């Protein structure tokens, strides 16, 4: 048989011998094993490569390090340094491939305990000579890609120091895998700040996690930061309040004690947006499937508050953002009544105003699980 599908055949994926582990091991223990995989478990890797010679490993070093705790990173760095001539770092690598004289495995499972034993994965085992040749050719082109780098010790130490980890604060939060976007933020030089995990900070992280989606949480904080930039308001201004109401599932930004931006999670995330009358009409006419409810503030020429599904679909973002920008600009230009300053939450304001702190909070809420 030249092709064989590999998958778990029982619901107890962690209890039986994994067909993925068996296939990877059979291939890697063949002549000249070449491995491409971003997420790796050093125990599995060392065991499978124990007697291998002329092997190669292509990985995304930042992604690999991001699933390692700070406690285990020294061992990983020492192993990489010891075998540096066999390893290259290719940022953006997402393939999971092993190829050798014993055939090849191509699939979705990473070479980790979770990938091999605890997830619903699919792979194909290949034995055809032409398939093997094509996979070798693909691997060689990646290995010699201009972005593929030999791992220098200085670069390795920097990644080990700066890549977000799942231990410490986020380990106690049972968080999900952190998306690459946050890793790129850290890679740009904006290091995550250390969190104190005060009671308000822990509550903010908890509420962000209730959104159950990193994109929603990040988008809400970005919109809150944009509100500050658009209106020019700063903490202490009586027109502005950022709160975490007792409802436990809500984050709100008030202008003149009116909702300017708020999010709530029930079955799925929704957001309150202060919009102009024109924006409300747009929702009712052009995107009725998006709008959950239109709320009318009291007063002549008062803005509206639209409750919409979040994040916004791309085709509606421009129109709704323009309506929101126009509404919050008009609302912030007047003082109607003092917002409830006693309820103002400084950590929410900071997450909106400070990008590095925002990255740290999002990292804590949606950081890497022990293994992908």
Explain the overall architecture.
The structure is a single chain. The protein is α+β, with helices and mostly antiparallel strands. Helices cover about 40% and strands about 20% of the residues. The chain contains 14 helices and 14 strands. It has helices at about 20-30, 40-50, 60-65, 75-80, 115-120, 130-145, 155-160, 180-185, 200-210, 215-230, 275-285, 315-330, 345-355, 355-365; strands spanning about 5, 35, 55-60, 85-90, 95-100, 105, 125, 150, 240-245, 250-255, 260-265, 270-275, 290-295, 305-310. It has an 8-stranded mixed β-sheet with strand order 1-7-6-5-2-3-4-8, sandwiched between helices. The longest helix has 19 residues, at about 315-330. It is elongated, with a radius of gyration of 25 Å. It starts with a strand and ends in a 7-residue tail after the last helix. About 40% of the residues are buried. Mean pLDDT is about 80; it is low at about 10-15, about 165-190 and about 370.
Radius of gyration: 25 Å
Give the spatial strand order of the biggest sheet.
1-7-6-5-2-3-4-8
- The shape, in one word, is elongated
> What characterizes the major β-sheet?
8 strands, mixed
Distance between the termini: 31 Å
Q: On the 0-100 scale, what is the average pLDDT?
A: 79
Tell me the structural class: alpha+beta
Low-pLDDT residue intervals, each spanning 5 or more residues: 10-16, 166-192, 368-372
Helix content range = 40-55%
Spell the H/E element sequence.
Answer: EHEHEHHEEEHEHEHHHHEEEEHEEHHH
Please give the count of helices: 14
- Estimate what percentage of residues fall within beta strands: 15-25%
Number of E-state strands: 14
């Amino acid at each position: 048989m030249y092709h064989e599908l590999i998958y778990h055949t029982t619901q107890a994926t962690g209890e039986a011998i994994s067909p993925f582990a068996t296939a990877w091991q059979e291939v890697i223990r063949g002549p000249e094993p070449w491995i491409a995989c971003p997420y790796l478990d050093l125990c599995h890797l060392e065991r499978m490569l124990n007697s291998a010679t002329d092997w190669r490993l292509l990985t995304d070093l930042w992604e690999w390090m991001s699933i390692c705790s700070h406690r285990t990173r020294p061992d990983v760095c020492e192993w990489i340094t010891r075998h540096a001539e066999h390893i290259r770092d290719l940022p953006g690598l997402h393939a999971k491939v092993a190829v050798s004289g014993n055939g090849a495995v191509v699939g979705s499972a990473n070479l980790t305990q979770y990938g091999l034993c605890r997830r619903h994965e699919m792979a194909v085992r290949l034995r055809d000579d032409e398939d093997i040749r094509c996979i070798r050719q693909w691997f060689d082109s990646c290995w010699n890609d201009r972005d593929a780098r030999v791992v220098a010790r200085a670069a390795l130490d920097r990644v080990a120091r700066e890549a977000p980890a799942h231990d410490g604060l986020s380990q106690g939060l049972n968080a999900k895998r952190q998306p690459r976007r946050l890793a790129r933020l850290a890679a740009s030089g904006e290091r995550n700040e250390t969190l104190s995990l005060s009671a308000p900070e822990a509550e903010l992280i908890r509420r962000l996690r209730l959104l159950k989606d990193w994109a929603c949480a990040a988008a809400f904080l970005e919109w809150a930061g944009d509100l500050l930039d658009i209106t020019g308001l700063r903490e202490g201004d009586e027109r502005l309040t950022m709160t975490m109401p007792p409802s436990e599932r809500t984050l709100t930004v008030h202008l003149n004690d009116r909702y300017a931006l708020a999010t709530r999670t029930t079955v799925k995330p929704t957001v309150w947006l202060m919009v102009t009358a024109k924006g409300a009409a747009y929702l009712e006419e052009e995107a009725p499937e998006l709008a959950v409810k239109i709320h009318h503030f009291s007063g002549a020429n008062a803005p509206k508050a639209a409750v919409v599904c979040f994040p916004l679909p791309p085709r509606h973002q421009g129109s709704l953002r323009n309506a929101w920008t126009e509404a919050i600009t008009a609302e912030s230009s007047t003082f109607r009544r003092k917002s409830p300053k006693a309820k103002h939450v400084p950590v929410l304001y900071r997450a909106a105003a400070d990008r590095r702190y925002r990255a740290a909070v999002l990292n804590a809420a949606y950081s890497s699980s022990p293994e992908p």
